[in-house]
């Protein structure tokens, strides 16, 4: 089913300003929020749809892409999000996180949802975590599965994440999960809203704390996690692993683990998108007369490269399809920059031939006024 136009979803004109977009989303989100419509699949759908539209239209770069390309402008590759708007994995948890990020501190938020609780307790999501994953070009070319060790907060096995026995409303925040501090200044009254330090934002405390987790409902664990990396990823792409970040306090849902891709430098090849660049040393006679040389390939082996007669040192020749795969299935090219190979030592026979070449070329000026031997010397000095 085709997606609706984002402006239509929020009910705003295309020239709407940031404040108008925010007000429109806030109204729809408050009306269709799952806490106000338990078990209502249509309301949940409207909430997710409005949040998706809001996430794109609130960001100037993504909004410009959408205005130009529509939904087709979505970045479908790994790492879409900061540069594109691929919402293929966008779920209710993501939508709720966006809503809480921008509107949890609004005046009347707690009263609107009856304290912001489900079952009498506010749900606080755990933090997202980020790890860096260095990869070689060979691993990027084929795709790879890597195992990484992550230290994160997981639900306490002793209390099942509850934090202890006998829940009670937090006395400090009265179950709201937030505390407000009013400050007076010469400019007027300022209200500072922050997470309640007593209950950690949950709105509830326990009468008898768990001895294992101290009432937090979670403990620190180091875990080995397998990460499947598709072929063709690039430096700066990221892979989100849902629910593998820190667990939320007292049974709250876990955040995500963000795996950030880093490319290791390669001794032979340099990457340019899906293309690879390499320098290939070629004997001078082959450059002059033409011939075939072997070009090393990423991952091992070599491919034949035809060098046309009269090729100058520094010329770039293309081997199609010998680069890296892209995330969309195509392959880049290998660009071989041929340079003259200058031997550090020559045999007596080679020296005699070079001396003969010098004698033959002396006095034979070219159109540019340079002798053939001078041109050889310039090529060798490249």
From TrEMBL:
Residues that hold Zn(2+) 2 according to the record: 170, 173, 196, 199
Predominant localisation class: cytoplasm
Keyword tags: Chaperone, Cytoplasm, DNA replication, Metal-binding, Repeat, Stress response, Zinc, Zinc-finger
Listed Pfam families: DnaJ (PF00226), DnaJ_C (PF01556), DnaJ_CXXCXGXG (PF00684)
Sequence ranges assigned to domain J in this UniProt record: 5-70
Zinc finger (CR-type): 143-222
Protein family (similarity comment): Belongs to the DnaJ family.
Protein name: Chaperone protein DnaJ
Organism: Eiseniibacteriota bacterium
